[in-house]
Specification:
The structure is a homodimer of 275-residue chains. Chain A starts with a strand and ends in a 6-residue tail after the last helix. Chain A folds into two domains: 3-68, Ribosomal Protein L25, Chain P, CATH 2.40.240; 77-202 and 209-269, Alpha/beta knot (3-Layer(aba) Sandwich). Chain A has helices at 20-29, 89-100, 119-139, 154-160, 179-186, 189-195, 208-212, 232-240, 255-269, and strands at residues 3-5, 11-12, 15-18, 37-41, 47-55, 60-68, 77-83, 104-108, 147-148, 166-170, 219-224, 244-246. In chain A, α2 (89-100) packs parallel to α9. In chain A, strands 1-4-5-6-3-2 form a six-stranded mixed beta sheet. In chain A, strands 9-8-7-11-10-12 form a six-stranded parallel beta sheet. By secondary structure, chain A is an alpha/beta fold. Chain A binds chain B through residues 71-72, 92, 95-96, 99-101, 139-142, 177-184, 246-254, 257, 260-261, 264-265, 267-269, 271-275, and chain B through 71-72, 92, 95-96, 99-101, 139-142, 178-184, 246-254, 257, 260-261, 264-265, 267-269, 271-275.
Chain lengths: 275, 275
């Protein structure tokens, strides 16, 4: 069944008003009629079965007929921090990352970032990223839309390391610590979180997922460098901030592949890829 | 160091002749000079350190100075069979699959395949796929270029199931067998392969990797349907042929994400994603 993430103000108890692109999609693409059923989510975890009551020209009204259980949200919070890559690679990372269960995307700038960072274009690009993530969340049956932060500086990213239970720095190395060994050495973070007090979250713009998350979900941050990799100095700084430098095996992954692959593997280890 | 996969005829013992795109890349892009060193691979597993001896206009000569150990080849053979998806998604699957360690790509046609299959354009498309896979193999430091088959019929794909130790049919299901449970139920296929006689491989066009592979590497086939999924009847036929219908967790993955994700997870389980 078609799934729509509406802004929270689209919900007034059981009465729902669908506007904008979603209304357009329902009216023009789906050719919806009164009585049709869709799933409406508020993006914060509430999902309802809704029956359409009125189809206007730019607006659709509906009534919630049933609260649905939350689905599609993993038992760990996984944040992907990706140094701005060239072209539209970040869009791929965000789309695939959302399907795989990531809960937050953090673009950042580092020493070898080659793309020019244009603050003027930022607003537009951020809108586009958020649209891609919303659509991927709808398509993959998530209950919560992952959060997309505006690009951070390297220093600001280092601070985020203190907010997570585990920070994995994907660092291309011939030898040394590798992903599976790290995850098995650390053990199941969910068990630890359940026994420890939840650490308070720092206030960040638009942390919808953070404030609504069950306090016991452990947070894992995956950090991926740009095409040219991170520098040795950056690796040291990240390690000092608490990140673990980790290899992803003997094959060299492209920057846009590393985040997806690490996410799939961590989700697999946590039983989130089935089983 | 720059890595080139040359056709086997480019090697004559220790004398190497580089032609075509690779020569162009060396001469025009790298502005190579005599004495420079590169890594030359024959795509079948041989890799050598080579010193350039002569730079022509369209040809570069080199001499092998050292045989290099084979790197980047996983301990399992992983074949990705993907029903032809729309647009350039298959190129993404092949590029990322090569980075992650897949050894063979098998496009196929199934009931809900929506792209038109044009036999006339096939040759050109196959060339393009093989070029993408070769470049991804060079970039990710593989020793062997994964094989790309021309698109198979569903019936021909079913026959391939008999050639592998495990066939995983990615099948979107609410419940039932899931990937991690399946892999753990099956156990380490490498141990089984080591004790069993190697099964002879069927003759297929251009099975360079198959004929040169160590006979003990177990083969795992991942089958992914098109955008609309495989039909119930196809799932039954695949199961009858020996495939295991397997879910990839509670989130619905796009067709081009499923193969990459399953590959990453299987490689992780086999210690091939580090650790």
């Amino acid at each position: 069944m078609q799934r729509y993430f509406l802004p929270p103000e689209g919900f007034e108890q059981d009465r729902i008003v669908i506007t904008g692109d979603d209304a357009h999609h329902l009216i023009r693409v789906m050719r919806a009629e009164p009585g049709d059923e869709v799933i409406c989510c508020d993006g914060l975890g509430r999902a309802v079965l809704a029956r359409l009551t009125e189809i206007g020209k730019t607006e659709v009204s509906a009534i919630a007929t049933q609260e649905l259980p939350q689905t599609g949200e993993p038992s760990v919070e996984l944040w992907i921090a990706q140094s701005l890559p060239k072209g539209d690679k970040l869009e791929t990372v965000m789309q695939k990352g959302t399907e795989l269960g990531a809960t937050r995307f953090i673009p950042f700038l580092s020493e070898r970032t080659v793309v020019q960072y244009d603050a003027k274009k930022e607003e537009k690009r951020l809108d586009r990223w958020r649209k891609i993530v919303k659509e991927a969340a709808e398509q993959s049956h998530r209950s919560v839309v992952p959060e997309v932060l505006a690009p951070l500086s390297w220093k600001a990213l280092l601070k985020l390391i203190g907010e997570v239970e585990l920070a994995v720095l994907c660092y291309e190395k011939e030898s040394g610590l590798q992903l599976r060994s790290l995850l098995r050495e650390i053990g199941d973070l969910r068990e630890k979180s359940a026994t420890e007090a939840a650490t308070p979250s720092a206030q960040t713009e638009g942390t919808a997922t953070s404030t609504s998350r069950p306090t016991k979900r452990p947070r894992i941050l995956v950090i991926v460098g740009p095409e040219g990799g991170i520098t040795e100095r950056e690796a040291e700084e990240a390690e000092q901030a608490g990140a673990r430098s980790t290899g992803l095996g003997p094959r060299i992954l492209r920057t846009e592949t590393a985040g997806m692959a690490a996410t799939a593997c961590i989700m697999y280890e946590y039983g989130e890829m089935g089983g």
